[in-house]
Amino acid sequence: MIKLSNASLHYGDTKVLNNVELNVEKGKLLALVGPSGCGKSTLLRVLSGLESLEEGSLEIDGKSLQSVRKQTALLLQDLGLFPWKTVLQNISFILIDRGMSKKEAETKAIHHLDSVGLKEYANRYPETLSGGQKQRVGFAKAIALEPDLLLLDEATASLDAFASESVQDILKKIHTETDITMVVVTHKIEEAVFLGDSIALMDEGSIHTIIDNPSVHLDNQRNTFEFFEMCKRVKEGFHYE
Question: Rounded mean pLDDT of the chain?
């Protein structure tokens, strides 16, 4: 689904991406983990088509990426929810904009709100929601577009531990129930291990290790020995003490 080769990019004199190599199979979830400022969000923007490479190549679904593609959904930290629109309207308006009737768009929006457990919040405004609820609305908005590639930037960065786990559970449910390929950027090692079929370790503009994660398919995963061992392995990959 994603094939990135020898990818490099500068911001001024700073090399933010340094010969990045990345392959993600269709239907898989890659967790991209690393410290703040290591180039994760920039790489996500490249994958979305919002940034162009100076060197290297990028193919999405077998085609060279030259611009933003309709089948890719990018969910940034600010979520892009309009405060003057209800939760339902925030989702339905993008479907109407793509040619769907209002009735059909609202029906589809309700369906996706139900899938993230927020059907009863359809007529609420974003400012009345918790951070975790807003994030779930963002998920519903993204999947309503029926993308084949979903890119998420620090989905739980502003949430407390309990809300983070709830949002992670919803995201994992979405991935399990669809064939959407996902790239999830995070600085939280436990989140990367919980979500990722594979985990890419990034630092100083480069991906230096990609680890397969068999623990992702285990029941009650967070409480398993394999989960803790995988977290330890990722930490050791960054030489953390």
Answer: 93
